Amino acid sequence: MKTLIIGASKNPERYSYKAAERLLKYGHEIELLGLRPDEIFGQTIDTEKKQYADIDTVTLYVGPQRQAEYYDYIVSLKPRRVIFNPGTENEKFYEILKNNNIAYETACTLVLLGTGQY
């Protein structure tokens, strides 16, 4: 199962960085989308919205005020679910996902991984 991290960062203090590290540790494949091109854990942080294949989960680390530009893109990837990490909750986006038969949950990726619920 492949996870797309939106809001990826090379800053080890950021939760998106910690999520990338933990997902890889638990054997998950990841794709990274961020504001600045870079590399972490041998993986490229893309800045273009690519049509990645086989995205199971999108985990968001972008606040609701910046999510509108990702609505259509995320729906086009047809993920099984979208995880809204703390601070990314967005009622309008929940509706869009619901209307496109994409599951969503407000949860913390790090907690889900740590408790075996990912």
Average the pLDDT over all residues and give the rounded result.
97
CATH class term: Alpha Beta
Q: Please provide the count of β strands.
A: 7
N to C succession of SSEs: EHEEEEHEHEH
List the main descriptive attributes of the protein structure presented here.
single chain, 118 residues, alpha/beta, Rossmann fold, 4 helices, globular
Architecture overview:
By secondary structure, this protein is of the alpha/beta class. The protein has a single domain (2-114), classed as 3-Layer(aba) Sandwich (Rossmann fold), CATH 3.40.50.720. Helix content is 28%, strand content 26%. The protein is built from four helices and seven strands, in the order βαββββαβαβα. It has helices at 15-25, 71-77, 91-99, 109-114; strands spanning 2-6, 29-33, 38-40, 43-46, 55-60, 81-84, 103-106. It has a seven-stranded mixed beta sheet with strand order 3-4-2-1-5-6-7, with helices on both faces. β5 (55-60), α2 (71-77) and β6 (81-84) form a beta-alpha-beta unit. The radius of gyration is 13 Å and the shape is globular.
What is this structure, in a nutshell?
The chain is α/β, with parallel strands linked by helices and 118 residues long.
